[in-house]
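Entry 14. Structure prediction run on the chain below.
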Amino acid sequence: MAVFLLRARYGPGYSPPAAIGIFNDVDLSHWAVHWIEQLAAEGITAGCGNGNYCPEASVTRAQMAVFLVRTFGL
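Output returned:
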């Protein structure tokens, strides 16, 4: 989801800046950590609570609608 949103916003060649480890449950070796942290940096997500992101959780249609609104300012 994080990769999808940022590439849709900035184009297929976009690459986010390096991650620093802001979520307790997303290790710096996680394949999408840079993308996840960039979503947080842009205010698109705040994670799932308690300092976690829950990277394996499914995204509901309602949550995706909010992510799209925040990503594209709809």
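Helices lie at 2-10, 33-41, 61-72.
Filed with the rest of this week's runs.
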